[in-house]
Fold:
Amino acid sequence: MADTCNIALIGQKFMGRAHSNAYLKVERFFNVPVKPVMHTIAGLDLISLAPFADRWGWKKYGTNWKDVVKDPAIGLVDISTPNHMHAEQALAAISAGKHVACEKPLAGTLKDARLMKNAAARSRRSKTFVWFNYRRCPAVAFARQLIQEDRLGRVFHVRARYLQDWGGPDTPMSWRFQKKYAGSGAHGDLSAHIIDMARFLTGQEFVEVLGAMTETFVPDRATPPTSRKTGGRVTQKKKPSRTKVDVDDAVAFVARLEGGTMATFEASRVAHGHQNDNTIEINGEHGSLRFSFEDMNWLWYYDARDEKATAGWRKIMCTSAGNHPYAGAWWPDAHIIGYEHTFVNMVADIMAALGGEEPIVPLPDFADAYETQRVLEAALLAAKHRAAVKLSEIK
Ligand SMILES: NC(=O)c1ccc[n+]([C@@H]2O[C@H](COP(=O)([O-])OP(=O)(O)OC[C@H]3O[C@@H](n4cnc5c(N)ncnc54)[C@H](O)[C@@H]3O)[C@@H](O)[C@H]2O)c1
Structure:
C-alpha cells in the first residue's frame, strides 16, 4: 500500500489552482509510491478560502501560514505566493522539518535565494523542489533525451525567448510590477523559465553574461481600488491614483555556456501577438531542435545528416507511450495534453522522489534553482553596469 504525505498549500490564486488540480489528479493517472493528501490550504482571504477548499477538496483552510507550516500533520509545504514570501515561508517550513515545493523564481532576490539554498543544504529531513514545470512537457523531456543521445553533437547555439503581451499600459498595478514583491519583472517571471530550460536541455551551466538590457515601457500603472469599511458599510476609495513601476517590462541578454555555447535570451510582457510564447531552439553540429509552448505537444527536429534532397524539419508529435516521457500516463497517441498536465507530471515526480524512486526527468531542488537565480542576477548586473558579468563573480 502506498504511503501518504499531507500537503499544505500556501496561495490560492493562479498557481494555487494549478497545484490543487495536480494533487487532485495525480493518482488517477500515475502509480505514485506516496499519495498526496490535500490537507490544508492557506491564503489571505478568508471569505474566498472556504469555497476554494470545498471546490478543490482541501480538508482544512486558514489565513495564518505560520501555524499551518508548524502543524505536525503536514509533510510537504507548497509555496505558491508572490516571490518576496518564498524565503520566509521556505525557511519556516524547512526549520519545521517539512519537505518544500516552491514556485519559481526561487526568490525575488539572490540574497533570499541563497538563504533558501543554504537552509536546504543544512537540513537532514527536508527535500526541496522548485516548480519549473516546463521541464515536464513531454516534448521538452524528449528533447533532452535526444541531446543526451548526442543527436545534435556539439551544441553551438541556444536561442530562447519567452514573450507575453498582457502587460500593456492598461494593465493595473499588481505585485508583479513592484520590486519589493517580485524582485524583477519579466526577467524573474519569464527569463527564469528559459534559463532553467537552457540548463536542463543542454546540461551546461552558464559561464558569462556578455551583455544585457532591460526596459520599463510603462512607468506607472493605475492603482487598483481598495475597499474600506466605514460604519459597517464597505466603500471603495474614490480618487484614481497611479503607482510607480520599478521593474522591467522586457529584458534581453547574451550569454556563453560551458563548452562555448552561444546563447541569446529575450523576455517581454508587452510583445503583442505572443501570449505565452515560450520558445527555445538549439542548434548543434549534427542538427537542431525547437520547442514552442503554444504548440507544446510537438517537438521540431532537423537532422543535418539526412540526404539533402529530402532533408527538412520533422514535426514530432510527442504523445507516444513508451517513446515520449510522460505520454504513457495520459491518453492514446495524438490525444494531446495541455498546461495543467505539466503540473500533474511534476507532482507525480515529487511523489516518486518522496517514495525513494527516480523521477522521470530530474527535479530541480533549491541548489539547482539557485544556479538559475545566479544567472538572473548576472543579467541584471550586466544591464545595470552595461558590462559583461562572469558567473564566477556571483556567489
Ligand atoms: N510555474 C509557472 O508556470 C508559474 C506561473 C505563474 C506564476 N508562477 C509563480 O507562482 C507564484 C505565485 O504566482 P501566482 O500567479 O499564483 O500569483 P497570484 O497573485 O495569482 O496568487 C498569489 C497568492 O498568494 C497569496 N498570498 C500572498 N501573500 C500571502 C501571505 N503572506 N500568506 C498567504 N498567502 C499569501 C495571495 O492571497 C494569492 O492567493 C509566483 O512566485 C510566480 O512567479 C509560476
Q: What stands out?
A: DSSP finds ten helices and 19 strands in the chain. The two ends are 44 Å apart (CA to CA). The first strand starts at residue 3 and ends at 10.
